[in-house]
Amino acid sequence: QVQLVESGGGLVQAGGSLRLSCAASGRTFSRVAMGWFRQAPGKEREFVAAIRWSGGNIYYAESVKGRFTISRDNAKNTVYLQMNSLKPEDTAVYYCAAGNSLYLIVASGYDYWGQGTQVTVSS
Asked: Tens of pLDDT along 49-74?
């Protein structure tokens, strides 16, 4: 079992930065892949970024590539999402997820989800 708690969301102006954190509990954290998804009002949940347990494989959605950085600290059981150059279209609830699937860019590839943290980017 893995339990996930996100933090770090908030209100920021366009062009600003935020860093999201996802603290995980459970003995298997270091062996699971971690991902970030987001869901805006009225829209489907979409993939943002993912990282394998070793940190050696990282994936980004095209819409965030070059602006967002995912990282993890297995010693702290935490995964991060550094978000720079934020745009109003990045506004959404951001969810952290954990899983062991080969398919990390789809929500079905994950077994565990956090409760989400709101990110609002004003223009």
From this structure: 999 988 789 999 999 999 999 999 98
